[in-house]
Amino acid sequence: MAKRDFYEVLGVARGASADEIKKAYRTKAKELHPDRNQDNPDAEAQFKEVNEAYDVLKDDTRKAAYDRYGHAAFEGGMGGGGPRGGYAGQGDFASAFSDVFEDLFGDFVGGRAGGGRSRASRGSDLRYNLRIALEDAFAGVQKTITVPGSVACTACNGTGAEGGAEPVSCPTCSGLGKVRAQNGFFTVERTCPTCNGAGQVVKNPCRVCHGAGRVEKERTLSVNIPAGVETGTRIRLAGEGEPGLRGGPAGDLYIFIEVKEHAIFQRDGLMLFCRVPVSMASAALGGEVEVPTIDGGRSRVKIPAGSQSGRQMRLRGKGMPALRGGGAGDMLIELAVETPVNLTTRQKELLREFEKIEAENNPETASFFKKVKTFWDGMKG
User: Which domain of life does the protein's organism represent (predicted)?
Assistant: First the structure.
């Protein structure tokens, strides 16, 4: 398959300047990078094609040869027409790829292409798991927590150098944080072994933190837990994570909430459920029962005569509050009709007497056994 015109690959005119070519290359490389196009099987080939085009057009000598002879300038007997006699796959591919790598990820590693790397690096984020009671989740609470970790070294003000002196540029990589080695036609780029990619080194490391710029120490923090939180709620405390390396910004502290199970209430979002036992007599005759509410109060609930187990009654606005406002949910009372145990002789006599006359007053029982009889008759047939 014939190679496409390099200018067409990058989407620029033949008279484009070096800056226009570089800008077009970065745009295309970002767009076609395989890591961003995992669902596109052609992305890798297109990405290589863009790098190949840029490797030629970024070099004035090779660009002039390409403008005059086209692809033939680097093929067959004319392979010596350029300073390296090959495309990006045979030439300084690492140099071409480094340009787009810095452009794509420079913000995260602390520097941009040509600008070196910053000596400071952001601290790590921390996670703290906090268990609270349902009552605290309802009302909100202030908790004091102890966070293990590290703090900026006061002896060197977080610089890592004795007396707070500023680090100096790494002599191995000249402050770039990376070194390159030529291996035949390939250029291999790796992290600088002297500064570990920081770009700067400390001549006289701090005796307290040994050049790290931070020391291990527990911290005590006061945290406000808002009303309405539930298990899985995440609270972010900006700048309360690990301090940055050598004066870099601190990370964040993320507090993950776990609400403990309650002995009386069960929660589902904004709804609360409370299972309340009632006697057979109260369920049959009707009555009242006093139930607790999550705010520590009490509510009297009327039990309709003839109530069955599982019957629910709603208390409006007695559930959990919505996080960040917006009202509150309801509380559902579920009746559990309780069968008495350890009966006295007199109680047994009364129940047997009651059993003889209650059949006609149990419509659900009559309906069920009528269906059972129909089922058995059907099986016999």
Answer: Bacteria
Inter-residue contact 51 to 59 (CB < 8 Å): no
122: left (phi over 0), alpha (psi -120 to 50) or beta: beta
The CA distance from 174 to 98, in Å, is 17
Q: DSSP string of 156-172?
A: TTTSSBGGGPPPEE-TT
* Amino acid occupying residue 228: G
| Binding residue positions for Zn(2+) | 153, 156, 170, 173, 192, 195, 206, 209
Residue 169 pairs in a beta bridge with: 200
CA angle 128, 134, 137 (to 5 degrees): 65
Domains of the chain: 6-109 (1.10.287.110), 126-259 (2.10.230.10), 265-338 (2.60.260.20), 345-380 (no CATH)
Residues marked as binding?
153, 156, 170, 173, 192, 195, 206, 209
- 270 φ/ψ sector (left φ>0, alpha ψ -120 to 50, else beta): alpha
Which tens digits make up the pLDDT trace of 86-118? 444 444 444 445 455 444 444 443 443 334 444
- pTM (predicted TM-score): 0.54
pLDDT in tens, 299-321: 999 999 989 999 999 999 999 99
